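pasting input
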Amino acid sequence: MNPFDAVRSPEALATVPVCDRCGSRIAGLCQPLDSAALDEVSSESQQTSLTAHSMVFREGDPAGRIFTLVEGFAKLTRLLPDGKQQVVGFRFAGDVIGYTTLPTYPFDAELLTDSRICRLERGQLDALLRRYPVLERRMLDLCVQELTATQEQLVTVGRRSAEARVAAFLLSLVEASRRRGKPCTVLEMPMTRADIADFLGLTLETVSRSLTAFRKRGWIREPVHHRVEMVNLRAVSDLAEGLS
Amino acid sequence: MNPFDAVRSPEALATVPVCDRCGSRIAGLCQPLDSAALDEVSSESQQTSLTAHSMVFREGDPAGRIFTLVEGFAKLTRLLPDGKQQVVGFRFAGDVIGYTTLPTYPFDAELLTDSRICRLERGQLDALLRRYPVLERRMLDLCVQELTATQEQLVTVGRRSAEARVAAFLLSLVEASRRRGKPCTVLEMPMTRADIADFLGLTLETVSRSLTAFRKRGWIREPVHHRVEMVNLRAVSDLAEGLS
DNA sequence: AGACCGCCTTGAACCCGTTCGACGCCGTCC
DNA sequence: GGACGGCGTCGAACGGGTTCAAGGCGGTCT
């Protein structure tokens, strides 16, 4: 155990072990913090459990809080005036949700599964950022990562064929799982066909047809609902690259 | 004039006036700096002029430098294995180009016009960020802005019809011009139809047809090559919103 | 059990944007 | 001047993905 543990308050003892297993500690905002700083962050933040389909926040809500997804899956969506929605991203354990410089959140954040989230008031975050410059640096790094991923997604949606988009989506799930330290061929995929379609700029029928095609070619399996097994990762990534 | 000017070195006197008119000072990284800090930044950075079609850097180059576009226009592109390119964004006077946490640049940066750029070695930037926390904050803000714009672009490419995408593109030009403090109905548009098409996930023919359609409807004019006049901004933004 | 509902799958027809081809315009290079 | 190449425009045919429609499967509620 960490040598700092001995001097922690009982309160901290209760909260920190939770933090140690949090995705944020592994790949997210809290990764660069030492134990003392982690204590402070964790004592200022509020952990809550929420059920699937809860809204963490809505597009247009005042952006007064920042969230970390401790466990679970979420989707971020923007609504178009004509009613169609675009999924701008999915979020996994450890990811930060809702950091923006805008006065209001620019998208909806909806949980796809029962989840645990960690909540911080905006003012508290700003104070922490001032106190621990390493946190601000970390925010910037995460933001740049996010920007790169979104640009990648732009390429996917803008230039790839339907099947190549679905293949690229599967690869992004593999990558997200790897980043969380679980390199595994069987992946959680809690999003519906419609969610995936809205992410890829396709219809749910096309997504369904593509996944069926992959299954028939023996590239993937779906042992149970909302779980994919990547059988032939190479074939999928070749298709995503357009080498078809 | 600024009271700090009196104590400046002759060298600073030569460089700072340039900075004061730089786009970065108005809308970019240097915006929050006081005169003393601006002196330091400007003395560490190298200004150069480059001609149209120069590459600022290429995808895969070691990301050792950060650039600010002082004057001019640039496009950022990613190349797909099959040879197609996706324009991931355009950059205008004042914008930062090439900041990444990755070891290499994730896209090409090519100038569309003769431009002036301001160059900073990565190590110098890191030192400045440590010295002036306000700069790090500013980087984060710019990154979040950029992320929001890219997500907006994702919606455009993913869910809008061809004409709506072109309309949205025109609006983004208006917005970029406004941000640089030049709210004007006649805009520079140095990119070719092919560039626009690659940005919007369309072909150049479709872009050409859409712009022709807008012209025939009297929504825009193109008085000279590479310049658009927004005659009926309302009609364009209604189309972009999908209210057609 | 039966009815209902959300989600997924599959088929067939259609349509929007692409592809392919041709041409015009303009600037540059022999 | 003439040839060439980059860029933009336009028409006709094609095709990938959408739209529309029907049906299946697995839950949950009554």
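fyi The radius of gyration of chain A is 19 Å.
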